[in-house]
Amino acid sequence: MMKEVGTHAIKTERLLLRRFVESDIKPYYDNYGCDQAVQEYIAWFDCKTLDDTENFVHEHLKKYDDPYFFGWVIEYEGEVIGSIGCFNVNPFLSCCELGYSIGSRWWNKGIVSEGAKAVVDYMFKEVGVHRIYASYTKENVASGRVMEKIGMKYEGTAIDGIVLEDGYHDLVYYAIINSQKP
What we know:
It is a single chain. The longest helix has 17 residues, at 111-127. The chain has helices spanning 25-33, 36-39, 50-63, 111-127, 141-149; strands at 10-11, 15-18, 70-76, 79-90, 95-102, 131-137, 153-164, 167-177. It starts with 9 loop residues before the first strand and ends in a 5-residue tail after the last strand. By secondary structure, it is an alpha+beta fold. The radius of gyration is 15 Å and the shape is globular. Helices cover 29% and strands 35% of the residues. An 8-stranded mixed sheet has the order 1-2-3-4-5-6-8-7, sandwiched between helices. Strand 1 and strand 2 (15-18) form a beta hairpin.
């Protein structure tokens, strides 16, 4: 049974995962939203403009009263560099979808793996989720490595599972259940 705890701050060795605040809009846009390398892989709520970013942050702010909403800004060395969260939360099935993204300046430093591991731990220990799943476009192999590093297992590939600006892409699915956690 899932607990209705919502989004609380999580501290790791290098990161602070916390709720968004209004003052995060500009740095989130500067360090993440306008990053063209990131936009290549984003299929969800994008932040290509400052207005888009403001809407994204305001959506988070509105949802923080929901005990089944889990969305964090990623802060690294005092800078807002991206976000991570669990979406499509289903209390009946006790499952959710993990999503994450950071600015390309911080890629390949283990930051997303560190944050994702902390969120998975939080969702299993504090919320009581049974299953967490995630997906990535097959071209975004770095995202797949993150999923493997945090103990997720390959489940399958959805052919043309998502449409982005340049057309359809295959989606690769991974998942982990609470009893599989390393």
